[in-house]
């Protein structure tokens, strides 16, 4: 399909709406500079699809056997805790529900806001503590998907170190500049399964993309 704009020819691909995602993954596959680990490729490709950033090939880090651990947790009805409602909105809730799982975000809860104000901590840290209370009442694995708040990762690290929480998986991909790199490094030393993006890049969309890649594989 050709279009002329200011004397220039702009050629558009004629792709049906239902074929756009498939075509996108074909382009990603063709532009990868090296083969990916087939176990992890679906996760990496979905992040690239979400961000159009091939840099994630080099910066996404995976703990040993994390794919199998994550899929087993999802099949056991894992609940996913996100640090933003944007990430929560992006997770495929219908597919997760097929396994008995749900997605939660406590950031906007009044009790979380009050606890954060009273204690002088971030809402993200207070929300992690509320998730810990949920963990005590659920006989289900917990997966934390953090795309925005490094303080959530720091709180998770501290609770894990104190023996108060043991998540099935932590997806640590907050974006930003303040304590972001350090918080991710902490999670990689926390002794729990992780998928972390080293460096400053990440975001709620990346957290949701990783969740969805795992859900689709499960």
Record keyword descriptors for this entry.
218 residues, alpha/beta, Rossmann fold, 6-stranded mixed β-sheet, two-stranded antiparallel sheet, 11 helices, globular
Q: Nutshell version of this structure?
A:
It contains 11 helices and 8 strands. It has 218 residues and is an alpha/beta fold.
Topology:
Blueprint: E1 2-5, E2 8-11, H1 20-31, H2 41-51, H3 56-59, E3 60-62, H4 66-75, E4 79-82, H5 85-90, H6 93-97, E5 103-105, H7 110-119, H8 123-137, E6 142-146, H9 150-161, E7 169-172, H10 180-187, E8 194-197, H11 204-217
Parallel strand pairs: 4-5, 4-6, 6-7, 7-8
Antiparallel strand pairs: 1-2, 3-8
Helix pairs in contact: 1-2, 2-11, 7-8, 8-9, 9-10
Task: Explain what this protein looks like in three dimensions.
The mean pLDDT is 94. The protein is of the alpha/beta class. The N and C termini lie far apart (38 Å). α7 crosses α8 and α9 (150-161) runs parallel beside α10 (180-187). The protein has one domain (59-217): Cobalamin biosynthesis CobH/CbiC, precorrin-8X methylmutase (Rossmann fold, 3-Layer(aba) Sandwich), CATH 3.40.50. It has helices at 20-31, 41-51, 56-59, 66-75, 85-90, 93-97, 110-119, 123-137, 150-161, 180-187, 204-217; strands spanning 2-5, 8-11, 60-62, 79-82, 103-105, 142-146, 169-172, 194-197. The strands form two sheets. Strands 3-8-7-6-4-5 form a six-stranded mixed sheet, with helices on both faces. Strands 1-2 form a two-stranded antiparallel ribbon.
